[in-house]
């Protein structure tokens, strides 16, 4: 009988200890520090936000486009695609605050793809260079309305043609940087020269500016160029672009409903010639295709005869 009572008392003590231990563990699990974090999901320009907070009594969202919300889990539709920084400021029960941020890239328009994520802490513009691999869309064209292929050149252009084929591999090295605020710069690298037109160089420098005339059969060369300080660029998403062309009535031709890039002063992108405004045919986050015009006839100085349709890639 005594043994049975002893076992009963021992079991009761153990049970009380376990209950006390479990209760203590449960209490400690509820004692989380005040915190705030963000979870989000994206569909086009629509973003569903969740404020993952502990011990918070209030939430303030700044969506980065001039609008705000005090919901804990808001859904926000941005009016325009682009880069944004969304900020959550959570208020704790004691009045303290915690802040969390998330960077968003939403339905990026061409300008954002061209200039890169200006909200990044290390933003230094977005830099491009001519792709030596080329693409199936790269070719040497006539400056006619259809940009038809030039019969004397391979179509599409094979990889590295300006290097292995024409001995001007340096044209693949030059870098062109676009900034979100509309400023622009480029680096002509060690040779101090730019991909250029042969007729243009003779007309403007008497040929003294020519550094490498390996592409002379196609009216191409490299010519000395000093990039301008404080240069700017202008992007137009849709316009009718008029050029001087031997294929147009009265020496003029209009490309309708095209996207264009134009530059201040003597600046240009990719190819240095009389016409420095270019057509932006296509752009993704990693590549873009430009149409750059060329005046290759000494009989019509400054009037375009051809065009270079070339792919550029992002410099990593």
Textual characterization of the structure:
This protein is mainly beta. The protein folds into two domains: 35-107, Immunoglobulins (Immunoglobulin-like, Sandwich); 112-314, no CATH class. It has four helices and 19 strands. The chain has helices spanning 2-29, 110-115, 161-165, 198-205; strands at 35-43, 46-54, 56-62, 68-69, 75-77, 82-92, 97-106, 126-130, 139-142, 175-178, 183-187, 193-197, 210-212, 220-224, 231-244, 252-263, 278-283, 287-294, 306-314. The strands form four sheets. Strands 8-10-11-15-16-17-18-19 form an eight-stranded antiparallel beta barrel. The protein starts with a helix and ends with a strand. The model is unreliable at 1-29 (pLDDT under 50).
């Amino acid at each position: 009988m005594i043994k049975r009572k002893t076992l009963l008392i021992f079991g009761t003590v153990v049970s009380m200890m376990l209950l006390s231990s479990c209760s203590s563990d449960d209490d400690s699990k509820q004692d989380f520090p005040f915190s705030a974090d963000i979870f989000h999901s994206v569909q086009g320009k629509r973003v569903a936000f969740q404020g993952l907070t502990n011990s918070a009594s209030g939430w303030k969202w700044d969506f980065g486009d001039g609008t705000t919300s005090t919901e804990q889990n808001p859904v926000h539709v941005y009016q325009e695609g682009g880069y944004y920084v969304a900020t959550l400021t959570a208020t704790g029960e004691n009045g303290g605050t915690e802040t969390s941020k998330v960077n968003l890239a939403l339905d990026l328009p061409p300008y954002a793809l061209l200039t890169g994520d200006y909200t990044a802490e290390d933003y230094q513009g977005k830099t491009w260079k001519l792709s030596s691999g080329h693409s199936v869309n790269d070719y040497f064209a006539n400056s006619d309305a259809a940009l038809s292929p030039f019969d004397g050149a391979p179509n599409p252009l094979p990889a590295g043609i300006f290097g292995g084929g024409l001995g001007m591999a340096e044209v693949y090295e030059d870098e062109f940087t676009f900034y979100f605020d509309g400023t622009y710069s480029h680096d002509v690298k060690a040779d101090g020269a730019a991909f250029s037109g042969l007729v243009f160089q003779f007309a403007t420098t008497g040929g003294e500016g020519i550094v490498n005339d390996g592409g002379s059969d196609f009216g191409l060369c490299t010519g000395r160029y000093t990039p301008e300080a404080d240069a700017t660029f202008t992007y137009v998403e849709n316009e009718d672009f008029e050029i001087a062309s031997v294929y147009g009535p009265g020496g003029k031709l209009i490309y309708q409903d095209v996207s264009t890039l134009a530059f201040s002063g003597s600046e240009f992108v990719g190819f240095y010639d009389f016409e420095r405004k270019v057509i932006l045919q296509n752009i993704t986050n990693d590549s873009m295709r430009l149409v750059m015009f060329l005046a290759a006839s000494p009989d019509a100085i400054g009037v375009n005869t051809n065009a270079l349709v070339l792919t550029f890639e992002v410099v990593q």
